[in-house]
TrEMBL record:
The keyword Coiled coil applies. Pfam families: ABC_tran (PF00005), ABC_tran_Xtn (PF12848). PANTHER family: ABC TRANSPORTER ATP-BINDING SUBUNIT, ABC TRANSPORTER DOMAIN-CONTAINING PROTEIN. Keywords: ATP-binding, Coiled coil, Nucleotide-binding. It comes from the Bacteria. This is ATPase subunit of ABC transporter with duplicated ATPase domains. The lineage of its organism: Bacteria, Bacillati, Actinomycetota, Actinomycetes, Micrococcales. InterPro entries: AAA+_ATPase, ABC_tran_Xtn, ABC_transporter-like_ATP-bd, ABC_transporter-like_CS, ABCF_ATPase, P-loop_NTPase. Residues 588-615 form a coiled coil. Residues 5-223, 287-506 form the ABC transporter domain.
Amino acid sequence: MAHLLGAENVHLEFPTRVVFDSVTIGLDEGDRIGVVGRNGDGKSTLLALLSQRLEPDDGRVTHRRGVTIGYLDQRDILPEGMTVGQVVVGDLAEHEWAGDAKIRDVIGGLVSDIPWDVTVDELSGGQRRRVALARLLVGDWDVLFLDEPTNHLDVEGIQWLAEHINRRWSANQGGMVVVTHDRWFLDAVSTDTWEVHDGVVEPFEGGYAAYILQRVERDRQAASSEQRRQNLARKELAWLRRGAPARTSKPKFRIDAANALIDDVPPIRDTVALSQMATARLGKDVVDLIDAGVSFDGTMIIEDIEWRIAPGERTGILGPNGAGKSTLLNLVSGKLQPTSGRVKTGKTVHIAVLDQQLADLAQFADDRVREVVARKKTSYVADGKEMTPSQLLERLGFTSEQLSTPVKDLSGGQKRRLQLMLILLDEPNVLILDEPTNDLDTDMLAAMEDLLDTWPGTLLVVSHDRYLLERVTDQQYAVLGGHLRHLPGGVDEYMKLRAAGTGGGTASAAAAASAGRPDTAGSSAVAAASGLRPAGAAPAAPTLSGAERRVVEKEMSALDRRIGKLALDRKKRLEAFGAHDQTDYEGLGKLQAELAALDAEVEQLEERWLEVAEQLGV
């Protein structure tokens, strides 16, 4: 594969620490790299170095001649006074961008609900993020650097972005480096993972799940190596004291398969024990919503909600923005009274909410962390063991030095962890988490999930982080069309329902549909060419103009040729597989990997072929 860019013996030092020390790393055509690491270890700095936005103190960063780079920063810096349309498509004439399948796809996936003629100064933070991302993705780039691209995206937006990245280039073209805490997204798009830690960048093959397996194996080998070193040291000491060394057999070491790594690991949660403990703390009644509904100014937000929350229940709540998820949780927590039906709360229920605002910490802004902790309980029980608040803080990633830091000087992720710890020390028996993943890196998310695994109470989670929802909850519900719907098939079922337009008829969706967004008011060409439509509306029949139809037909012909070529390549690989020496496991493994890559590319092309065929009405 052709080289795109790389860093050679790069050294970067800030006044207080060394960020990178003799780092050598490269990006080739076809690489899709996910970057993980603790907050503050240098993930965003690595992107800035590789894109040549930041110069290293030593070493060098090189780019292939003519390579084009697109960069999404964490901050959404948009030109003031310009409309959404001007920012996204620039000076392109309407017929040019409306006839471009890629641009239509980006508009439909990211900004179809944002008024096209509104200035970006009037947008919310989430809308600005989506506009900035759309502005980047409509361009043609050899390399994309994405710094937290999933921020402010809902579950559907994140899935769309993953699918877009996977079909943006062919298998051996283009390059991408992404920093994100969304582990599902990392698994969906990454072919390799870079872990940034302690001044180095350590590469791993595969996405997040493969990275975790390799990391566990690496740590296991390191522990085993240290144990052997200590054993050898003891034997050396015995020889020095006794004289001639005893004859010993050399220890044998075997790298176990991935499944063997988790054979002796118990289930992540003892659901029976947790349910018994939750019942003991809560009794049989928690919160019952009986035919509950809420309306504002005559507009029904949610209605006819029948939900009897059980002791120890661990539920994830899904739904598009504006569907009524927060309204539902406010009913459960008692912050909001129903306008119809009723809410019954158990006598022993103690509800705590981890919200997005961190408002609870404002009163402690000038206090040091240890002072805040000292006002709470002196102990907390986790995993059946009694822990001090300091031990709990350590489990959540705080160092002893950070205990002396004023709360106002903590990072966003540290404040989030402190907020969670203070809530747990109050020992609620119902915990509501509203977007708890904000500002947390993957290691801290894992630590938080580990802590929640032993928490004996009822847990309700609203999050766009698909990995977190599936990890800490046992069942999922969706707020769709103002109603609460159980999802036996989990997040996958929710995505199918949304793709089918089920439950899209909320008041907010209706308002968005008439707010001047591209599919209804911004452009008649987009309405015809892109197929964008309000959620829940029936698909419109294809109405392509002559020029647009020729463009789409040309794409279909190219897809047919490419699929046919890959079919021949696959046949040759199968023949080579059959003729290969069956005892050469390494060679067979390479052939198998090539087959898998071909199959994956064929699947992507076939999905695109179906989309094109639908546009043509085939």
